[in-house]
């Protein structure tokens, strides 16, 4: 079956669920994720190797969750849409990484550090007039829990002003779909490997279909956000976004799984904005209605 392309881009959009997992979630290409992590993490927690972790029935099923060879827990999330409780949600997710390290009835100081890294396609409200795009939030837990946020909309360097490896990574993440060929400053081995993985013409028909669905959802989600912004009424903005996301998810689920049973629609109508966002991240991995119900039980 032929799938017409919605995108004329040469490279995958990393802010789509498919694109994010394509670039960072593949065992055979985990050196790409390691390279990225090592420009973000402090020098005393550099990663030589990592393992992609299975998270069972925890909400971490919706994130990229890894463990370094020294035991540090690493959660990486590409967040495309802003919502009011994003930081609180991160605290909730990261708590599972701590809980799994604690043997029942045996509290001690052997808990390894947990890093949650958010690559954001939006700017926090409280930071909107601040030019700083790199934030580290450290909780008072003996340096065991840190949140690192990259607000990519604030990153405005051009290709001729890239000073270091971090600059190159941020430029690449922000501009990858806009590039036609690898720019000279990004023609390092690690980036050339990434460009090859990200090349849309290398996708199979199944991968192309999954990417086009993921890209359509990303674009539709941006339209929902823009509609809410144009409403101009701050009080109702969250409700506009929530209803827009819910309507969009109904359409996407029906397209993928067929007509939704009434009981499923009732469950979806009860989801909060944060839960709808979580569901959107796992949308294209669902195979049937039963998968959807199992996911809804764990959100």
Automatic annotation (TrEMBL):
Domain DUF4351: 239-296
Record InterPro entries: DUF4351 (IPR025587), RpnA (IPR010106)
Domain of life: Bacteria
Protein name, UniProt field: Rpn family recombination-promoting nuclease/putative transposase
């Amino acid at each position: 079956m032929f799938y017409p392309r919605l995108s004329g881009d040469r490279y995958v959009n990393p802010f789509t669920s498919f694109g994010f997992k394509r670039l960072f979630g593949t065992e055979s290409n985990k050196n790409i994720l390691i390279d990225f992590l090592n420009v973000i993490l402090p020098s005393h927690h550099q990663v030589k190797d990592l393992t992609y972790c299975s998270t069972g029935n925890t909400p971490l099923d919706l994130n990229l969750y890894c463990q370094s060879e020294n035991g540090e827990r690493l959660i990486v999330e590409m967040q495309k849409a802003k919502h009011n409780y994003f930081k609180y949600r991160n605290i909730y997710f990261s708590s599972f990484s701590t809980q799994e390290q604690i043997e029942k009835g045996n509290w001690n100081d052997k808990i390894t550090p947990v890093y949650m890294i958010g690559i954001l396609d939006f700017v926090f409200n409280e930071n909107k007039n601040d030019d700083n795009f790199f934030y580290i939030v450290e909780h008072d837990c003996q340096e065991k829990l840190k949140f690192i946020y990259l607000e990519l909309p604030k990153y405005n360097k051009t290709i001729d002003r890239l000073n270091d490896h971090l600059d190159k990574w941020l430029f690449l993440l922000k501009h990858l779909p806009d590039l036609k060929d690898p720019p000279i400053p990004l023609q390092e081995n690690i980036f050339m490997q990434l460009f090859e993985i990200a090349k849309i013409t290398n996708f199979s028909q199944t991968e192309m279909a999954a990417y086009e669905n993921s890209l359509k959802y990303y674009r539709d989600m941006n339209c929902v956000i823009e509609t809410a912004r144009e409403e101009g009424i701050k009080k109702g903005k969250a409700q506009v976004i929530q209803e827009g996301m819910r309507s969009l998810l109904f359409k996407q689920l029906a397209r993928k799984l067929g007509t939704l049973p009434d009981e499923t629609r009732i469950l979806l109508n009860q989801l909060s904005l944060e839960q709808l966002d979580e569901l959107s991240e796992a949308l294209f991995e669902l195979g049937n209605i039963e998968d959807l119900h199992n996911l809804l039980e764990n959100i």
